User: Fold these one by one.
Assistant:
Number 1:
Amino acid sequence: MNLFRSKEHVKKWSGFKPGTEAGILTLADALRVMSTPRHRNRLRPDYVSRLPETVPAFVQRLLEVSGNSPFWDLRPD
Amino acid sequence: MAADHLDETYHFIISVFVERGQAPHFTEIAARFGIPVEEGKRRLHELMAARLPNWLFPETDLIASFAPFNNLPTQYRISVDGEHKWFAQCGLESLAMSWMFPGKRVTVNAPCLDCGEPLRVDILDGEIKQADPGDIHFYVDLPIKKWYGNLPFA
């Protein structure tokens, strides 16, 4: 789970695995993934008990950002 | 553990990270809530078993990582309004760090793993203020459903 200077750097990286291109996101999209209540609400005193409420928005955001890619689909099979 | 105990233990740990950049020990959990030391340790272990992106250093009672923070240095160095004392769990969690510091400018400094050259992202309340270079990308090689199988290596 790393940041790179560009998409070209990702693909040149020794750790890049062909076939996992779906795992590449722009910086803006990666930030969108981390901007639903699941991550925004971590300072709330009731964060853990209310975590289940945050799942739908997070799942939806992952699908939006990835264009419904199975790589980012958290829904049960 | 009762849900309110999970909430208050979680809130205490993440608040300590925000304040001092390092995790508390379980004895501090015990002191904070006025409970026996062993109860503090039990609370820590129960929270860490709650399938959150947090984990202990193997075979210890020491917090290794507590998203978005890391208790061991990583390549993701975090500064807040110019003060550096935090590390992010990973590149993705570094982007969630601004939610821990509302109203403050959070800077992520890291090397690119391909070339070793630096990259920098400034974020304020979830908005990118500056990114250098301008074409930074994120990469993970594991589908998200498999992340929880081995979080430290996802």
Number 2:
Amino acid sequence: MPYITGGFPDMDTCAAVIEAAIGAGADVVELGVPFSDPVADGPVVQASSHAALQAGVTPDDVLALAARFAGRVPFVLLAYANTVAAYGLERFARRAVASGVEGLVVPDLPVDEAGGLAAVAAGAGLSLVPMATPTSTDARLDMVAAAATSFIYCVAVTGVTGARAHLGGELPGLVARLRRRTATPLVAGFGISTPGQAAEVAAVADGVIIGSALIARVAEAVAGAATATAVAEERAPAGRVATAAGSARADAADGVAERARAGARAAAELLGGIDAALRQTAEGATT
Amino acid sequence: MIPDSRFGPYGGRYVPETLIPALDELSAAYAQARDDRSFQAELDGLLADYAGRPTPVFHARRLSELVGATVLLKREDLCHTGAHKINNVLGQVLLAVRMGKRRVIAETGAGQHGVATATACALFGLECVVYMGAEDVVRQELNVVRMRLLGATVNTVESGTRTLKDAMNEALRDWVTNVRSTHYVIGSVAGPAPYPAMVRDFQAVIGREAREQVLGRYGRLPDEVIACVGGGSNALGIFHAFLDDDVRLTGVEAAGEGLESGRHGASLTLGRPGILHGSRSYVLQDEWGQIAAAHSVSAGLDYPGVGPEHAALKDSGRVTYEAASDDEALRAFVSLAELEGLLPALESAHAIAYVLRAARPESSGRATQPTAGAAVRFSAGDLLLVNLSGRGDKDVHVVADLLGVDR
């Protein structure tokens, strides 16, 4: 399950990344609604949110992005509490469902603050996904298990989002404590960046979320493509037809298309590798 | 009894699940400490012998004459470290020690809360990390040096608006990562429960003292109590003892470059309810709920949110909220220096600026230039109590640059 910040690095590249993710075997796509103050996120997601906001991306743009792929892959939206509150709980839930969104994660809305939104979401046919963390007490895991209607988001590490060399070994204990309480699928995220880590997580959880690693790869590829385009233009300015405006527009379109291709390639590579690792783990488990 | 977590529709705990057990632990520890005489005795001892309480109430005679009422200043600027912030920090650091947390983090805007936290950590031998926005690191350089001399690590925050809001984001991220070993000393009546109620309780000593002092000297309560409001801790600290009295309460926010300029910190005056830094309160935000950048010449008021109890007090009408501009605050800074020999913190200068709106037009001098806000008239017999929440040493170079004073 890949996570990408909606509208990052631009709407077209983001769409190409989603397309690539579907191609690489994503079962669900998690789309982030960029927020000015994402306290649960590490530097990579923060930077992507900031860039998307600078580019003028709104919650409606992110919903429109999901709607483009409606029917092809289920979407889960990640939005901070104030985004949903400012939009209006009911309106947000209704529009999300109309855009093909099935689940909603609100990282700063713990289960005991979520009652109002959970009810509104359920009424609209949207599943509010609760989060469980290694620091959650047993009593809180009871609340999480009771609130879950689709899956439980298991936070794999004590910390914010972002790649780590080692996951720290807190997830198996959390998963075991949840399994004793519920048959709801457990999907793990935060800190998981490599095929090896994905396989390690898949050995205990039912799903794996890859966010910061994907965003970092896309950002890197897009930056590379931009440099390549700039270099190519510098090398051959004389060869261009001098009808300036039309040519500049074509260059800009070429640039965006090239960025989108580069972003999609990077996403396909990372997610393809992770999908292969997950398939291997699954085969290992069944044999 | 567990401290208040809601103030009408405001407050709550809008933070990642990872932090909730730590907030539960803190609520329980605080509830226990509050009813524990040995904790209170230890805190009272520190407030007296270390912080220098009780702070005096000073009759500012020349200022009084200028505005046509009796102006009393509650001298929180005389607290150790130079502001009211130490009252809360000593309470929270004692709690951290009780909870066995050896690492303490804090956010700071003006640097006063950071200095107070670094001070208390030095006193108790705790590790201290302070987050401060890059812009504030520049404009409050003196306090950065003070924190480092006290043994604290100061982490410069480059994200977002590079001010108090982003320092608080970064402190929350640190806490999410190190929650098992770390106590987060929030410096205002903001953040998730139990902070707004707990910080208010630790600051309420200001109003309790002042109420007794004014009653003792004048045989009656003040007519109006005035304090500046950023997050709002010095204001709630002095207001709280007067909530049930027939006393006007006035909070003064930062109008920055003017309320119509869009560059201000007047969350209560111009914000609308939203969720920021763990609680629901008035927030400066755009139509999509993106938090707006605040602005104030004073780093401590340069914040797009405000404590949730203030939101409830605004809605109920018990407290009136005004806003004073950067220019008014600068003029108030100079006036208080010239009239009373006191350099107020730029934050506190906003409260003085409100009082100066009543300055008599016939008197001459810098203090009586026209102001942006509506004129204020006090009755001759009015007794005004202003919280002078901090001293302005930290601001002298900012003020000198803005006013072109020779160095």
Number 3:
Amino acid sequence: MNILFIGTTGIHHTLIAAHFYMGRLSEKDDYSELQLWGDRASESLGVPLFLDYDHMGNKVYVLGVGWDVQMAQKSIEQLDKLLSDDRPGLIVEPVFIKREKLLLFLHRLGRMKKLNQLVQMLIAHLLTREINTIQKQVNRFKEGVTFV
Amino acid sequence: MAFDNMKIIYHCFGGSHSSVTAAALHLGLLNRNQTPTAEELMEIPYYDKTSDSDFGSIRFMGTDEFGNDIYVLGKKSLGNRFSSILMGVAEIIGKQDDLIVVNCMNIVNWSMKLGGFTSRRLGLVAVGRPVVSWGTRKAFSQLVNLVEITRVNAIKKNRELQAI
């Protein structure tokens, strides 16, 4: 099975959520050290980014989808159903934070190279306040998910 | 000639005008040699008839003569990366060879944007619909080209797969 965490960006809160899920991160760790953290080049490709396998051998991916995460989830799930003949090959889990639109705005602002370093610092600071929210979502996901 | 069934998804902002017209062309619901009238456009399923709940929904339009299933999708503001997103998802479930995704947004002109917004978002159908129809008719030849390229790509892709 493939697990796809989606969010406004795939390289910030979504990445944290995926690592929480895999048990590779605790609330006290420095998440800016994560591979792919703030990796604009990978994000710009627009494809799901493979992270690793979880403890059950499921592949874990992250993906940034822009403003409308719920709509993207709907399209992706329908596409999976269409291509997999109603036997889902994918679990899509959206990751929401309170300031995700601000995060997306900052991420886009970071396109200007001179601002990128400052932007990454601001995003890291913004996410320190959202860690508990992300952790709770991941815990709910773990409790509710069943693998076919 | 036997072909494996492919899924072809035409997408645009609302899934209501350019993608729907392209899909109709692909399926032969419109004559590619003649610019359709506004009435002929209105006969196309979904043309200027969608609602907010249709955003993000992959809607079936029909099956072409090669057995490929044709769909339309309104992606709202998900942008140019959307084709990559869909193909990337197809790849991780191992179905990238079964899918072609076509972005119709490059063909959408200002009349279509203005008319579509006025009709679908503001609900002023009497004002917006003539404007979007006019814009669609203006972009028709470009849509014909886009569809022809897509049809050729689908045939090529199928031949490559059959050669493996």
Number 4:
Amino acid sequence: MTSCIYLESGIRHHPLAQNILERLHRLPVIEIEHFGEVFNPRAQNFRLQKKNPAIIIASKNKGHVLAAPEGYGLGGDHNYYFSHMLNCLYDCRYCFLQGMYRSAHQVVFVNYEDFGEQIRQTAASHGQAPVWFFSGYDCDSLANEPLTHFTEYFIPLVASIENAWMELRTKSTQVRSMLNQEPVARVVTAFSFSDRFSHDSLEHGVPSIAKRIDAMRRLSDAGWPVGLRFDPVVYHENYELGFSELLDQVFAEIDADGLHSVSLGAFRLTRDHFHRVSRLYPDEPLFAQNMQLDNGIVSYPSARERQMIEFCEAQLMKYIPVQTYHPCEWHD
Amino acid sequence: MLIWVAALHCEASPVIDFYRLRKSQGEKAFDLYLGDDMACIVSGVGKLASAAASAWMAARYRDEASLAWINIGTAGAARHDIGAIFLLDKIVDGDTAKCYFPAPTSIPLLPGSACLTLSQPSRDYREDCLFDMEASGFISSALRFSSAELIRCIKVVSDNRHAETGRNREQVSALIRQHIDSIEQQTTDLLALNNEVAALEFSAESWQRLLALAHFTQTQQNRLRVLWRYLHNRDLGPEALLQELSTRRTAASMIDMLERISHGNSETL
């Protein structure tokens, strides 16, 4: 339940800020100078704050578009990400955001026009070459759509830039806004899934697998490119059964040949993120599993990870064409 | 453990009376009142005194798994009626302009307000907020020992443009006492949150018994702490574990045993 709104005084009159304030008019509003005053202090408990996160309405003044991390992409040569929001509505226990941010408050950067300008400039800097812009890195792209109107702004923007491609990554079922727009071939909505065991244990607040498959199918039927992201795959004693059942469930509804892309990766976190999140959740079995540290990344021991990936890939290849598959490459 | 910090006895007495806290004898630095799961310290006026009292309490209760804090007191306000109660959501230090933000609560039963902490009393009610003399000192100190989610400031208006009751001790106590039900709700909520955090920690006693079994290097102790905390939270019976561990000869073999138990336990999510 959202507890209150922190509002940067300088952005108060922005139309999107006003829209959010009107929609959440019952909540107390606390004025601040800069979102960092509330978001950045060390003495915050992410776990406790997640029970009653606030919305922080802010303006992003720099770093609107950043180069994507190494290995993050779908085969394109030019990959960037942008974050109109920080933090996610959902509470997935494997998520790196818990370890990256001190605060669980959701920051909404309402100055979309500045993001848009940077996206244009970045795309133009690569001439005619395709340029990918990944949303959903620091948040769920669609979960807060009724509040943020993210797709209403950014989809037409990307559609107007001929060499721009965009991935929306989501666990949400908030597809209504997109269904009210003409599909754009260069906008891919990627739905993340975990098997039912992992979903029940680790994905708090996330809509059911069935509802998300349904949302994905409706988008696909309307002509929107869609993708699948099986990332992270979490080890547990029933992971093989769980993953097989998940694929059966997905491909009973989704046309495998119509997919834009499918990616797969095992659970992994940077060392610092892992240490922070495991201190927040010392009772969480996921963080007590047998893990290794390899080049600054905490993940399953190599043999186990290889076994998991090989199994999951073998199952996937029963359904999808190989050219659709993009494994998550994080090992050097 | 819940720590109450009040500047004056008249501000503390409604809480002391309601929770039947008993005066701790022999304390020299501050007057201290104790209960089973809470304590109340009378700091004296001013942010320095409030910060010092908070730090003193944190040191006194350093072995507690988690500390929660409430600063209870009176404030001045330009616009609000005498006796109005607020839960502070923004605290500004009048000298440094530094801002602090107590975390929003799950039960916003009290209206929120910003508060400017001054170094001297003032009748210049020019800002649209409360005025006090302790909050910024209190919270800047408390944040060193607890996260913002476990810290609250409750202020009752004792002075405004039309009336001043802040110097009348009986009236101050009465103003706070009239809100004791709301204060109790905040206290109950905060204690529940604090207990949730405290429950994640193992007891100091079991930790000491564990360390006594072998010589653990600092690195081993760091690993041991993580494992012991996990197994504590999975209700895997410290007595049985300690018994099993005592059959091992070396620190490394003990850690190895705890690792294997943790790994086995965690594969079912």
